[in-house]
């Protein structure tokens, strides 16, 4: 007799056709050009290993000193990260977590009762559905629209708000569209949220990866004080160190709301005490060492994007959608095939792995998503095979 599992885990765990085809290729010993790489530790970067490993040679790590919001020195290091970007943040507004995913989980606990709703962008990263369901929270989508660049459909977003909406999630820049929130969009969102007592959650993990300047772009919502706002980031992307499991929440908004949210978040954090002492003591040095890795990643994604643009050109049947930052590029291909058929053909006949747009909830066909983090040689070979097929 099968046990009665929670309905929050009621997901289809069967592999999709692309996963099955990839497994078959691996069994056959094929050399796959993987243009989906998202793990910087496997992408061929030169890590300053002495500095990173040396950051953990701290005797204070042998003493357990639980602080719900995180150790003061670690939070000061995070404040320094924002100060260097012209975004001064008091350490009292910073709360450490073990990851951005944990930050989401804690914020959903803070803001929503079971059955409440959060609004998330479409297209975007597909993790939101899973994180929200595990907190018994419903996800509703608001659309991003593309017209020579991505923008938020603020009218549709406003229409999606209901009496049970508790938060609006922004991914800034978005994954995978690479689009930033603009000043005019933020003004509308802040006014909506302040009027209706809705929080803003701004995921800013890719904010350091920008392809070109834009005065209308919002690099961070850390300055927002008219509505309750939470900015998320961590070592995973800004330092290329996902294995270190260190993230944070910057709490913003009106002083009274901010104080109430901070008090409740510290209670949640105190319940879990998930952030390891060694990584907290190492955080100042890890952020410093991460500058080297971040520079390498930034150079890689720029180089790969430039190569992709040159390879596609002006006369290709495919089009690269405008991207402002992040690690990904989106290729619009002819609708002579479905996205799944395009991906399966590229994998089965050309040994190239890319992601279909429906993985990210693109609402129409046909889009392919490529990771610009991929090693340059692999990326060039993969793009050559894609353009050859096109």
List keywords for this structure.
390 residues; Aspartate Aminotransferase, domain 1; Aspartate Aminotransferase, domain 2; 2 domains; eight-stranded mixed beta sheet; 12 helices; 14 strands; globular
Explain the overall architecture:
There is one protein chain. By secondary structure, this protein is of the alpha/beta class. It has 2 domains: 7-46 and 290-389, Aspartate Aminotransferase, domain 1; 65-287, Aspartate Aminotransferase, domain 2 (3-Layer(aba) Sandwich). It contains 12 helices and 14 strands. The protein has helices at 17-27, 49-54, 72-83, 100-111, 127-134, 154-160, 183-196, 235-238, 255-272, 277-312, 339-350, 376-389; strands spanning 33-34, 94-97, 117-122, 138-146, 150-152, 165-171, 199-203, 229-234, 247-252, 319-320, 328-332, 352-353, 355-356, 367-371. Helix 3 packs parallel to helix 10 (277-312), helix 4 (100-111) packs across helix 9 (255-272) and helix 10 packs parallel to helix 12. The longest helix has 36 residues, at 277-312. It is globular. The model has no long low-confidence stretch (mean pLDDT 96).
CATH topology of the largest domain: Aspartate Aminotransferase, domain 2
The CATH homologous superfamily of the largest domain is named Type I PLP-dependent aspartate aminotransferase-like (Major domain)
What percentage of residues falls in helices of 4 or more residues? 25-40%
The number of strands is: 14
Classification by helices and strands = alpha/beta
Q: Topology, please?
A:
Layout: H1 17-27, E1 33-34, H2 49-54, H3 72-83, E2 94-97, H4 100-111, E3 117-122, H5 127-134, E4 138-146, E5 150-152, H6 154-160, E6 165-171, H7 183-196, E7 199-203, E8 229-234, H8 235-238, E9 247-252, H9 255-272, H10 277-312, E10 319-320, E11 328-332, H11 339-350, E12 352-353, E13 355-356, E14 367-371, H12 376-389
Helix pairs in contact: 1-11, 3-10, 4-9, 10-12
């Amino acid at each position: 007799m099968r046990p009665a599992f929670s309905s929050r885990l009621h997901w289809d765990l069967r592999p999709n056709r692309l996963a099955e085809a990839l497994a078959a290729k691996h069994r056959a010993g094929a050399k796959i050009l993987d243009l989906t790489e998202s793990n910087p530790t496997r992408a061929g970067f030169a890590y300053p290993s002495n500095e990173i490993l040396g950051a953990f040679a701290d005797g204070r790590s042998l003493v357990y000193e639980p602080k719900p919001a995180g150790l003061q020195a670690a939070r000061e290091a995070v404040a320094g990260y924002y100060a260097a970007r012209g975004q001064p943040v008091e350490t009292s507004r910073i709360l450490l977590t073990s990851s951005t995913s944990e930050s989401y989980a804690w914020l959903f606990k803070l803001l929503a009762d079971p059955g409440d709703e959060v609004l998330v962008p479409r297209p975007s990263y597909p993790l939101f559905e899973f994180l929200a369901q595990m907190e018994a929270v419903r996800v509703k989508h608001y659309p991003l629209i593309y017209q020579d660049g991505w923008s938020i459909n603020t009218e549709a977003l406003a229409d999606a708000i209901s009496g049970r909406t508790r938060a609006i999630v922004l991914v800034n820049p978005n994954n995978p569209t690479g689009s930033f929130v603009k000043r005019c969009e933020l003004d509308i969102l802040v006014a909506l949220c302040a009027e209706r007592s809705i929080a803003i959650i701004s995921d800013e993990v890719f904010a350091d990866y920008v392809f070109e300047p834009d005065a209308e772009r919002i690099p961070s919502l850390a300055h927002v004080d008219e509505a309750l706002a939470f900015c998320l980031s961590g070592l995973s992307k800004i330092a290329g160190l996902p294995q270190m499991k260190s993230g944070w929440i910057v709490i913003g908004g009106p002083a009274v709301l901010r104080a109430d949210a901070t008090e409740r978040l510290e209670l949640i954090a105190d319940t879990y005490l998930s952030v390891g002492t060694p990584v907290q003591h190492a955080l100042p040095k890890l952020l410093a060492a991460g500058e080297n890795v971040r520079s390498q990643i930034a150079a890689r994604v720029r180089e790969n994007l430039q190569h992709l643009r040159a390879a596609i050109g002006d006369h290709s049947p495919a089009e690269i959608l405008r991207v402002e930052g992040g690690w990904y590029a989106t290729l619009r291909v002819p609708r002579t095939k479905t996205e799944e058929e395009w991906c399966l053909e590229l994998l089965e006949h050309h040994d190239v792995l890319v992601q279909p747009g429906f993985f990210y909830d693109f609402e129409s066909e046909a889009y392919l998503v490529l990771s610009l983090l991929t090693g340059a040689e692999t990326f060039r070979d993969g793009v050559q095979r894609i353009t050859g097929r096109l």
